Amino acid sequence: EAGVVQSPRYKIIEKKQPVAFWCNPISGHNTLYWYLQNLGQGPELLIRYENEEAVDDSQLPKDRFSAERLKGVDSTLKIQPAELGDSAVYLCASSPGSLDTQYFGPGTRLTVL
Amino acid sequence: ELKVEQNPLFLSMQEGKNYTIYCNYSTTSDRLYWYRQDPGKSLESLFVLLSNGAVKQEGRLMASLDTKARLSTLHITAAVHDLSATYFCAVVSTGNQFYFGTGTSLTVIP
Questions:
Q1: Contact A97/A90 with Cβ under 8 angstroms?
Q2: Is-contact A67 A46, C-beta < 8 A?
Q3: Around Cβ B2, how many Cβ atoms within 10 Å?
Q4: Mean pLDDT of A68-87
Q5: What is the distance in angstroms between the Cα of A44 and the nearest Cα belonging to chain B?
Q6: Do A48 and B90 touch (CB under 8 A)?
Q7: How far apart are CA A22 and CA A42, in angstroms?
Q8: Calpha distance A97→A54 (Å, rounded)
Q9: Which residue of B has its CA nearest to A33?
Q10: Residues B15, B1: contact at Cβ < 8 Å?
Q11: Which of A41, A98, A99 minimises the CB distance to B103?
Q12: How confident is the model at residue A16 (pLDDT cuts 50, 70, 90)?
């Protein structure tokens, strides 16, 4: 069974530039999560989807971050414009349902210069 | 906001020794997860604890949950080098929000 796929794995951009991350969850998983992980810390939830509906986006900085999950499968997380403080690893995870074990992708390491 | 604290944050232990990692959380939850993260890698699920008194064991790792004390433990028995990693606990609050702990970085030395 294929795991959670994320791309790109690494991204280096200059501040004020836009950036987008893509996630393909495990087939059949209805719940999809985007997390931010800073070095030496645990993941922090940005947004959770149940199918195509964003059911928890309370921690998403909506002035610059946006996300979508078209057709309830793949998802894209966008930052525009990026700031220096956005440098982190962005993790995507999926699970069959909202309380089930989450399966994480390899993450995208973002560096904002 | 639910707070999840782990201790110790850093742990260096010799091979063959036993040790326990603690995970405390601030509000009621009856579901707790343990994950492992190797350097530069993503998180891998270890255990799901679904009720008070739940105990799960896999190899040299054993996890338990005490919902009344709001405490979970991850016990390591006869540590080996392959267990070196960062261990996270995660708690689910009302509204199905996940909160991860600060992580415990474990190094097992020969």
A1: no
A2: yes
A3: 16
A4: 95
A5: 7
A6: no
A7: 21
A8: 14
A9: B98
A10: no
A11: A41
A12: very high
